[in-house]
Design brief:
- The chain is mainly β.
- The protein has 2 domains: about 80 residues, SH3 type barrels; about 120 residues, Beta Barrel (Cathepsin D, subunit A, domain 1).
- The protein contains 4 helices and 17 strands.
- Strands 9, 10, 11, 12, 13, 14 and 15 form a 7-stranded mixed β-sheet that branches. It has a 4-stranded antiparallel β-sheet with strand order 4-5-6-7, with no helix packed on it. Strands 1-2-3 form a 3-stranded antiparallel β-sheet, with no helix packed on it.
- A hairpin with a 4-residue loop joins β5 and β6.
- The radius of gyration is 20 Å and the shape is globular.
């Protein structure tokens, strides 16, 4: 009887992981980065990173992402969803961003009603700005922020985690967004990180990057 119960549990778990790929929807493809939804939850992975122990990203580029799912290699392209459990929402607002000559995605927007520019950075955990930008926006980051340390290309820096009232990109506006203020000159352009990007949908359309909510 015990052996039968263990066998049943094994079959259920195997079936569950085998069905994981039936709920994956790719919404953004980049060099060494993929943004996708699994069971309606959004993830951002780089090669070698995983969701649990069963879904591992092998590689990603602007055309496809290759996953190892429960020991099997699976290739996905944009909107290459399998299964009908995912219902794609009809976006009310779409912002289309073209790459600059260096392949960077820079877009105009606003922070707390102040106009500024952002560099879309899926590798940044939070929206990130330097102290000069924070002062321009009237953010007293040392008073209201939570002090922390971060590692950048130039070494370890002090940052202050603050809450921004609003972020606007085109017709998309989100409220109460976490951001990091670097107590220095880095970064020289504000990074539009995942504290914003994880709350919108991102997809590639050829060379264009499209944000929607």
């Amino acid at each position: 009887m015990r052996g039968l119960i263990i066998s049943i549990i094994f079959v259920i778990l195997t079936f569950s992981f085998a069905q994981a790929d039936e709920n994956i929807v790719i919404i953004g493809l980049f060099k060494n980065k993929v943004i996708f939804k699994l069971n309606n939850k959004q993830y951002v992975l780089s090669p070698g990173e995983s969701v649990g122990d069963e879904i591992i990203l092998i590689s990603a580029n602007s055309k496809e992402a290759i996953f190892n799912i429960n020991g099997q290699e699976n290739r996905y392209t944009l909107d290459g969803s399998i299964g009908s459990s995912f219902n794609k929402a009809n976006p009310s607002n779409i912002v289309t961003i073209a790459p600059d000559s260096n392949g960077m995605y820079i877009v105009n927007g606003g922070i707390n009603k102040h106009q500024t520019r952002f560099l879309v950075d899926t590798g940044a955990t939070l929206i990130s700005m330097n102290r000069h930008e924070a002062n321009r926006f009237g953010i007293d980051y040392k008073l209201i922020g939570k002090k922390a340390m971060t590692t950048t290309a130039s070494g370890t820096e002090t940052v202050y985690i603050v809450n921004l009232k609003s972020i606007r990109i085109g017709d998309i506006q989100l409220n109460n967004i976490s951001a990091a203020v670097h107590d220095g000159d880095y970064p020289d352009i504000i990074l539009l990180g995942n504290s914003f990007l994880n709350r919108v949908s991102i997809r590639r359309d050829g060379q264009l990057l499209k944000l929607s909510n």
